[in-house]
Every structure is written in structure tokens, then in C-alpha cells.
Write a structure and sequence with these properties.
96 residues; Immunoglobulin-like; mainly beta
């Protein structure tokens, strides 16, 4: 997972990007905040290692001071193995 910019500023756009590892069939990517699913932006799939696909997704946020320390998780699930892999990022928001 990556954030652009690396450190967010309150009131300024922030993008959190997630890409799954190589998978065949492609993984489904979902986002969670506080254990609740939230809607991300599907960025499609790209060819990846070993003939598989990497699924990409992003969240676009305008963080506030209250978002400092919030945890966003990205979860990739492959239907054939019925197992999810996840990663998370803790927001570090600079206040004006």
C-alpha cells in the first residue's frame, strides 16, 4: 500500500493505493475502515508474475484533523482458495 502524498494534510486530497500480488483468477480487492467495508475505485488488473494478474484499487480522501491515526485496510480475496490477504496503513495527517 502507498499513499500520495506520503504524509497527508488536513483539507488536501490524499490517495491510498493498493495492489494485490499475482493471482489467477484475479483477486477481488475491498477496503475496510473501522471494520466496515468502504467503496474504493477499481483501477483494473495488470499482467503480473507467473501468468497471473495484479488487481489495483485506490481510495481518494480529503482528510480532516480527526483522520490522524485512522487505519485503512486493503483486502485481496481469491475465490478459488477462499483466503484473504490484507495490508493496512495508519494515516499521518498534518494539521494546518
Amino acid at each position: 500500500m502507498t499513499t500520495r502524498p506520503r504524509q497527508g494534510r488536513a483539507g488536501q486530497p490524499l490517495v491510498i493505493a493498493c495492489a494485490s500480488a499475482s493471482s489467477n483468477p484475479p483477486s477481488d480487492v475491498s477496503w475496510l475502515k473501522d471494520g466496515n467495508e468502504i467503496i474504493g475505485i477499481d483501477k483494473g488488473q495488470v499482467n503480473s508474475d507467473y501468468g497471473g494478474w495484479s488487481t489495483r484499487s485506490e481510495l481518494e480522501l480529503i482528510p480532516t484533523e480527526a483522520d490522524d491515526g485512522e487505519i485503512y485496510a486493503c483486502q485481496a480475496m481469491n475465490e478459488l482458495i477462499a483466503r484473504a490477504v490484507s495490508d493496512a496503513v495508519t494515516l499521518d495527517i498534518l494539521c494546518e
